[in-house]
Amino acid sequence: MPGSAISPRRLEAAMSAVGRLKAELAGYDDDVVLASIESETGALELIDRILEHVVADEALVENGKTRLKRIEARADRNRSILKAMMEEIGDKLERPLATLSVSEGPKMAHIVDAQAIPDVYWRRAIDKHELLRALKAGPVEGAELSNGTPVLRLLTR
């Protein structure tokens, strides 16, 4: 059940039992070890329960992201409508929920000739995607391939 919590004691006991079993069955085939873990510990049941939590939580997050995008789009549309209305009505309007006003936006730099911009304003960063491609093809001075942090991959059905 995705809503129920998993007892830390139960998790610790199951993992401790797995460790003992693996030590006892050192040298045995992986299938034998896994069958023993399944029959003699609750570890695989806990994995299934935790996996249910992960799948349910990821679905909630995805649904939340979709809903958030819809809400943000609706808020943007409504702001645009309010701005258009305010441009017709006037610069400032006091209402029970808020005071609305239309003013100039913040100053921004607009580039009209990039070649004329002094070097002090230019920034350059390492393109890590290109560097990774190059490292996969062979050595690159000043860089090396390294393993990333281990990642759990889940293929849900």
Structure in words:
The chain has 157 residues and is mostly helical. Helix content is 54%, strand content 4%. It has four helices and two strands. Strands 1-2 form a two-stranded antiparallel sheet. A hairpin with a 4-residue loop joins β1 and β2 (99-101). α1 (8-24) packs antiparallel against α2. The longest helix is centred in the middle third of the chain and has 47 residues, at 43-89.
Any key phrases for this structure?
flat, 4% strand, two-stranded antiparallel sheet, 2 strands, mainly alpha
Task: List strands and helices in order, with pairings.
Layout: H1 8-24, H2 30-40, H3 43-89, E1 92-94, E2 99-101, H4 128-137
Antiparallel strand pairs: 1-2
Tally of separate helices: 4
Shape label: flat
Q: Record the strand order, biggest sheet.
A: 1-2
The percent range for strand residues is under 5%
Unreliable residue runs: none
Instruction: State the total count of DSSP E strands.
Output: 2
Radius of gyration: 29 Å
Q: Roughly how much helix do the residues carry, as a percent range?
A: 40-55%
Could you tell me how far the N terminus lies from the C terminus, measured between alpha carbons in angstroms? 17 Å
By secondary-structure content and strand pairing, the structural class works out as mainly alpha
